[in-house]
Amino acid sequence: MVKVEEVPVEAIEVPRERARSTLTDEQLAELEASIKTHGFTVPILVSPLPDGKYRLVDGEHRLAIARKLGLKTVPAVVAEGDERKLTLLNILANTARGTQNPMDVSLMLKKALEAGASVEELAAATGHTTQWVQFYIALAELPERYQEALRTGKLKVGHIREAVRLPNPLEVDSALQSTLIHNWTVEELKYYVDRRLPELREIYKGGEPGQLPPPPSPKEAEEIVSYGNCLACRRKFRREDLRMPVICQDCYDFLFYFAEQMPDTRRALETLYKAYNFYMDALKTQVQPAPQAPLLPKPAVTPPSPASPALKTPAPGQSEIDTETLDLARKIKALREAGLI
What we know:
The chain has 341 residues and is of the alpha/beta class. The protein has 14 helices and 7 strands. The protein has helices at 25-38, 60-68, 83-95, 102-114, 119-126, 130-139, 144-152, 157-163, 169-182, 186-204, 218-226, 249-261, 265-285, 323-337; strands at residues 2-8, 12-13, 44-48, 54-58, 73-79, 227-229, 236-238. The longest helix is centred in the last third of the chain and has 21 residues, at 265-285. The model is unreliable at 298-311 (pLDDT under 50).
């Protein structure tokens, strides 16, 4: 049976464990202004207690404003029912707003489950899947420091989802500790987990070891998140200096060939640039020294024709060019004559 009546403010008790929506200071100010101007357009929800008082089911912010404004009574829907029904009503009222504290929801879901509600009923009440309900109930099993971090917003539910992808409690605990120490976003923790999982797969490859190596320290974890390895040369760089452009197969092969031949890719790029420009300058000036044999074993190329411009070491007085650059320029020439570039 449900009815609306004026209920004394002082007769309403607020349970410690309940789902709560979270409002910003601006939203609270707007709600207070609305109640001052228009009164209670939406009644709060309470259930009667045996001693003549009432237990709050929904409307904690409105009740707090009523007390602040000095109101003696507030309009309330008085809903009678068992613990299971009232808990479901509380969850439904708060999850509908989408701003609830995750730990409050977790504890209320657990309480409703213990009161006899099924996971399917809880999923229907919250508008989520049964997997979502089970995950939120499991949050109540977290160590208290992580529950408190979820209450205060230092951790998000997404952090927990990423951390539990790791295969054992020690790794999960280490990841969450590093998250709190370094103020990682969910995306940063995901990157850490993605980097850590291949390492753990290698550890477990021969079967679970008798004694696991310790997880990364917070300092080591920060380095994992801050740095990444180049896909081509495998060197370590800060993540902001790494790029992943769309690349065709030809350019991909070209990149990997030069990264393999000259692991110091910055130096390789400078050498290639100088060699190519040196060769193009030689074409323009039509330098004609004795032809040089091609230096690349693959692909096979024909010797240069007598009419082709060749390369030679600059004469005294001309700009000097290092041997490595000159050799690379000759390779470019051989490839060009073979029709490969």
